[in-house]
Each structure stands twice: as C-alpha cells, then as structure tokens.
Design goal:
The chain has about 110 residues and is mainly β. It is about 0% helix and about 50% strand. The strands form two sheets. Strands 1-8-3-6 form a four-stranded antiparallel beta sheet, with no helix packed on it. The radius of gyration is 16 Å and the shape is globular.
C-alpha cells in the first residue's frame, strides 16, 4: 500500500464444523491481514488465493498471518472439519483516499 492509511476495520470470525467462505473478492479496502487465532485439533486451516497460476493453498496454524489485497485477489477459506471453533482475526486497511466513506481526513497544521 503506497498511500497513507486512512482507516482500519477489524473483526473476528468464528467458524463451526463445515463452515467456510466461498470464492470471492471483497468490495472495499486496500490490504487485508488475516491472523489464525485458534483451531482445535485440525492440522491446519487453509486460505486459498487464486492468482494467474490458479488456486493456491496457504496452510495456516495458530499465530500465522497472511497479508494480501482482498479486493484484487480472489480468495476462499477451506471448510472447517473440527467440531471445535476456528477463530480468525481480520484487519482491513483503507488508504487515505478512501476516507470519504464517512471518515474525515485529518487536518494538517
């Protein structure tokens, strides 16, 4: 991201067994950080990114993070197979030029 950060949105996701997010591109934001916080007995949680060479898995274990452009790169999460919840933290960064979405640009002195 070459522009200064204008705002950050953050949230957590909690997936039950069988839940997943299918292939998509996000509609807003410049950069996204996905951090795997917890997964019980499953060996990994795969985030899939689809680039020019096709889909590619990014196996994650708790504490691993992936930084990518969620509005330009198609992505999905693999279905959870463990009965215990999988928990992720997500931070989406918006460039300063997008602050017209309800956030004012800080005044310079």
């Amino acid at each position: 991201m070459r522009a200064p950060i204008g705002k950050i949105r953050a949230w957590t996701n909690c997936y039950a067994a069988g839940e997943r997010i299918s292939w998509h591109k996000d509609c807003a934001g410049d950069i996204q950080l996905l951090l795997l916080l917890a997964v019980a007995h499953s060996p990994d949680m795969s985030l899939w990114l689809r680039g020019r060479a096709g889909p590619r898995p990014f196996p994650l274990t708790p504490g691993d993070a992936v930084l990518f452009s969620a509005t330009r790169v198609e992505h999905e999460t693999a279905a959870s197979t463990d009965p215990a919840p999988r928990i992720t933290a997500v931070m989406r960064f918006f460039a300063l030029h997008e602050t017209g979405l309800g956030f004012s640009t800080p005044a310079r002195s």
